[in-house]
């Protein structure tokens, strides 16, 4: 049996998938290309050849995050054309359940504080996601703002290890109950 070598495109896809997890756990500053290369089974210089820099790999990971969110929005709107926003929210909660999207986004926001390139990229990602959600749902600016705010809340709650299986309101209520007993 002849072993088939991966194409550069497939290796790039693999590096982004692994990079999302590595950056979610370690952030742009602390993560290393070596961690990605080790998990891919390739050399560090090879990963640099694919992306040019660690920041470029990070930005590619943010682009993949955007693509995954866009796919969730598209599927939800297609499945529930009459009421797409609730379906989009549910799809987003499912997407973030493993913590990778949440971790990557929080790390991106942290990096954006001191890196204008990352900040501009994050702003562009949010803008494109909002525009896409608006096109798919016909939601107005206030509805989109509310959905974005709820999404940010869900990301924060998920990062804190809150149980979101009953929805974000139940998670918030459980926090209020903890405070009441403290």
UniProtKB/TrEMBL annotation:
This is HTH tetR-type domain-containing protein. SUPFAM superfamilies: Homeodomain-like. Residues 32-51 bind DNA. It comes from the Bacteria. InterPro entries: Homeodomain-like_sf, HTH_TetR. Keywords: DNA-binding, Transcription, Transcription regulation. Pfam families: TetR_N. PANTHER family: HTH-TYPE TRANSCRIPTIONAL REPRESSOR NEMR (PTHR47506:SF6), TRANSCRIPTIONAL REGULATORY PROTEIN (PTHR47506). Residues 9-69 form the HTH tetR-type domain. The lineage of its organism: Bacteria, Bacillati, Actinomycetota, Actinomycetes, Micromonosporales.
